[in-house]
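In response to the reviewer comment on reproducibility (Comment 2.3), we provide here a single inverse folding case reported in full, input and output, so that an independent group could reproduce the run without further information from us. The structure tokens appear first.
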């Protein structure tokens, strides 16, 4: 029996390649299917696989952090919809070292309007970097500290090769780089088939939520007041020009 990679509708162009099969073409027990969290399959497509196939080689693993680490309906990635959660199976490997799997649901917000059907958009790795950083902090660094505000200061990615919807591993290093400002730096290497495809890094600071929210609102108030003043001045200038005419 031939092994086939089960591909979700979002990446259906991959089905033009040998050893890939579109979910719609799956028939009862015709193929031995391989599927995983990184293949761009949504929940309905996974249900279709399990319903129509008895012979499955699955790399799906239990222990999704979406279930294990959600506290009071707050997910460590700060995402509320399961399909938008990109990080799964997060584990601490060493003192500042962590591993995770990239989870790619075909309904993810970063796939809805920017997919050519073959490779994973680069923005997915930017967002995955943010989610991994937040998850490590909330789960391992300060698991009992809920009253904090995560502020992203800088984030970037270097792309070393094509990223396809297959198993993607993340190796992360998170360190406190400035105790005075409570600033952290995370660096991540994403790999497929033991080959690094993306290097990313992000700097973020942790603030007391109540104090930062107050600062944020005051800053917003100043910005809005200045914006209103700009429109008011423009309107007055137009009135003057019209009067001169």
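Designed residues, in position order:
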């Amino acid at each position: 029996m031939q092994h086939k990679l089960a591909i979700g509708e979002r990446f259906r162009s991959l089905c033009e390649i040998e050893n890939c099969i579109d979910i719609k073409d799956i028939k009862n027990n015709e193929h031995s299917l391989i599927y995983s969290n990184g293949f761009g399959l949504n929940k309905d497509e996974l249900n279709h696989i399990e319903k129509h196939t008895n012979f499955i080689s699955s790399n799906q693993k239990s222990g999704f952090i979406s279930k294990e680490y959600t506290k009071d309906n707050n997910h460590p990635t700060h995402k509320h919809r399961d399909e938008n959660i990109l990080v799964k199976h997060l584990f601490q490997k060493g003192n500042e070292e962590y591993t995770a799997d990239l989870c790619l649901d075909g309904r993810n917000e970063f796939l809805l309007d920017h997919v050519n059907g073959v490779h994973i958009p680069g923005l997915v790795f930017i967002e995955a970097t943010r989610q991994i950083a937040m998850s490590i902090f909330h789960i391992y660094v300060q698991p009992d500290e809920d009253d904090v505000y995560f502020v992203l200061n800088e984030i970037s990615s270097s792309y070393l090769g094509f990223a396809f919807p297959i198993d993607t591993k993340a190796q992360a290093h998170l360190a406190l780089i400035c105790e005075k400002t409570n600033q952290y730096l995370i660096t991540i290497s994403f790999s497929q088939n033991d080959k690094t495809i993306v290097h990313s890094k992000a700097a973020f600071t942790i603030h007391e939520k109540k104090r930062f929210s107050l600062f944020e609102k005051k800053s917003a108030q100043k910005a809005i007041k200045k914006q209103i003043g700009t429109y008011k001045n423009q309107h007055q200038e137009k009135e003057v020009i019209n009067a001169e005419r």
